[in-house]
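Thread: Newbie trying to understand structure tokens

Hi all, I'm a second-year student working on a class project, and my supervisor (Dr. K.) asked me to get a predicted structure for one chain before our next meeting. I've only ever worked with sequences, so writing a 3D structure as a token string is new to me. If someone could post the tokens and maybe explain what I'm looking at, I'd be very grateful. Here's the chain:
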Amino acid sequence: MIAAWAALVDDSPASRATGAELVARWAEPHRRYHTLAHLRGVLDAIGPLAELAADPVAVRLAAWFHDAVYQGRPGWDEERSAQLAQARLPRCGVPARRVAETARLVRLTATHDPAAGDHDGAVLCDADLAVLAGPGYAAYTVAVREEYRHVPEELFRAGRAEVLRRLLAVPRLYRTPIAHERWETRARENMTAELDRLTHPPAA
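---
Reply by user tm_fold:
Sure, no problem. This is what the structure looks like when written as tokens:
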């Protein structure tokens, strides 16, 4: 993981310290889904989409920061993660314009709704949502539930079902043509099946 980080920033004590800090954040013990495995998955998913980005380095930097702060507070987590990027990246030799783009992309992951023509946003959001189409979808849903283990079952089911309905309602889940072709159908099948399980639980 550190090698992937080092490829994006200057080789300096500040950059190495920031990379170590990020790895430590992603490895925090309260995390179940938003872990180093998720970060690795997003970076891997960016790979086939990177050629579509205007600034693939900013996209990868945003992947590193997008859940660097994670307390299970939607919106707040993304804002704090963006602020962390703005604080750390300048000392890593990242130009101001790229720092700003990285922070913008991190904030975008709160909604996963990039504007038309936002190629960097489309690549990052598609990569972040790639798990919805992956073979590990069942394990993903278990990990998400564990991260919200403090939420009563009935409330969790209602909240999770609302998230799934919102995602299924959009006309196009994946905005890049590559991701749309590869992942759209499978992701919708996975989410539809999960929504059915949440709204029609087996009788006790």
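A couple of things are worth pointing out once you decode it. The two ends are 44 Å apart (CA to CA). The longest helix spans residues 177-199. Feel free to ask follow-ups in this thread.
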